Amino acid sequence: MDGEMENTSNNVVEINSDTEKNDSNSEKPIIKLFKSLVTNDSKQNTVLTNAQIIDILNKEFDIKLSELHELEGEIYLTIMKKYLKDWPQWDEFDTIINNLKSKNKMEEMENIFESKYISLKSYLKTMLDIAENLAKPTIQAFINKQQMKEKDKTGTPESVVVLEIQASRNQLNQLIFRHPNAKLENTIFNPEFLLPTQIQLTTFPIEAILNWWGVSITIISNTNVSIYKREMQHELKHVLVNKKLKEHSNPFKFLDQDIKVASFKRTQIIEIDELIKKIDMKAKCSKDYEIYNFIKKDLKMLPSTIPSRMTLKRYTNKYPYVRYLYKEDESELASELSSNKFDLQLEETISPCYHINVVPIKDEMNMNLTINCEPCSLQFTGLNLIVDLKAHFDAEHFNEPDWKCINCNKTFSMVNLAKNWWCHRC
What is the distance between the alpha carbons of residues 38 and 50, in angstroms, rounded to a whole number? Predict the structure, then answer.
């Protein structure tokens, strides 16, 4: 553990440490951070997401970003990312803790955690107070200026520009430069795509994987008939916004969570309870019982009877989620921060939903399970289905920015949203 923190993107602070384990017993996020740096002997990276930094701001400093102007929230996040990694006592902390750890002096380590907790919290509090004194008048002036522009608006309809871009899911997350890149002829598009280097702290829960976008679950009979198919078909909307211009608000939208019929063919009726019993029998004798249990949970949300070969659609939350995607150009960061013209961000709105199609199951023992990851064009089946599926997601899909509910403005990591079926209570 060398105590060095590195901000690798706008969404994480990366701490070079010798752990990846988090102590959930402590209520203080900073104490959790300290413990996570010393509880493992292998050299690892601890990644703090925006959601975790927001948790520190909330619990340690009573700063609730959801109640602040978005620009003020961005300032607090930037301050925390910078000064968490620049705390002058990291080297001293590193030396003392490694010495105590080698001697297995756990009680003394706890005392160091408490003393350094006070020091780091005081250090961060000082920086946050300075930021608050500078930020509030600047933000108020910004709001007043926007309000004046709205009053002077002539009523001329704004032109709408539709931009069509082909990009992979991971490329889209860092496609837009936050400011025109002077080294690349002032383009706003990032021509390079680098795979993330952070180490994922926890593995994906199976429910998160099965609720990920582009993932489909298919049960195929021995006669090659698809007897169950569930496809995550989240509805996405992208708008390129410049936050230096007038305040952009995502239009409010209410999502009806009732089951909707997407297509229908008149045929026999399926009793859902009978179908669940057959799936349950298969689950009891299969290595893939976690997926079959997920399917049972999914089926229980359907009406008690449905026509066979009906395609059903369901939104999983009352409200869409929104997030802002962009790429910081570190070499130009100083000049960008002084710019008064550009703050380009790709606004991504998701209305989480899935489609499901079911036909009668004649022989519950003769089922073949297949999982497809459409964004990666990969299919998983066979004896190692779950192992291979989790390994793929842990390696390729962890670097996703957080989402915010457009109704309550609470922030969630994508893994937690997917694990909870993209649903939360406002």
Answer: 22
Q: What distance in Å separates the CA atoms of residue 269 and residue 306, rounded to the nearest whole number?
A: 6
* Assigned token pair, 52: 């975790």
Q: Which of helix, strand or coil describes residue 166?
A: coil
Element (H, E) at 197: none
Distance, in Å, from the CA atom of 18 to the CA atom of 44, rounded to the nearest integer, reads 5
Measure the CA angle with vertex 37, ends 91 and 197; round to 5°: 95
Order the strands of the 12-17 sheet from edge to edge: 5-6, 12-17, 44-49
Which residue is it, tokens 């709105």? Answer: 349
Compute φ and ψ for 367, nearest 5 degrees. Answer: -125, 140
Query: Where would I find the H helices in 152-174?
Result: 169-172
Residue 120: exposure state from Cβ atoms within 10 A (0-12, 13-18, ≥19)? buried
Are 140 and 66 contacting, i.e. CB atoms less than 8 angstroms apart? Answer: no
Residue 426 neighbours by CB under 8 Å, 6+ apart? 318, 319, 405, 407, 408, 410
Highest mean pLDDT (candidates 122-131, 183-192, 307-316, 408-417): 408-417
Token duo for residue 122: 């005081």
Q: How confident is the model at residue 14 (pLDDT cuts 50, 70, 90)?
A: very low
Look-up of token digits 């690892």: 44
8 Å CB contact between 402 and 411: yes
3-state secondary structure of 82: helix
DSSP for 245-266, please give it. SSPP-PPP-----S-EEEE---
Q: Let me know: does 406 contact 250? Beta carbons within 8 Å.
A: yes
H helix intervals, 211-364 = 272-284, 289-299, 333-337
> What global pTM score does this model have?
0.56
Contact 299, 293 (CB under 8 A): no
pLDDT (tens digit, 9 = 90+) per residue, 251-290? 667 888 887 776 555 567 888 888 888 888 888 888 888 9
Where do we find the tokens 């959801």?
66
Determine the Cα–Cα distance for residues 76 and 166; give it in Å rounded to an integer. Answer: 34
What is the rounded (10 degree) CA torsion for 210, 213, 214, 216?
Answer: 20
In terms of Cα–Cα distance, which of 356, 355, 350, 276 is closest to 319?
A: 350
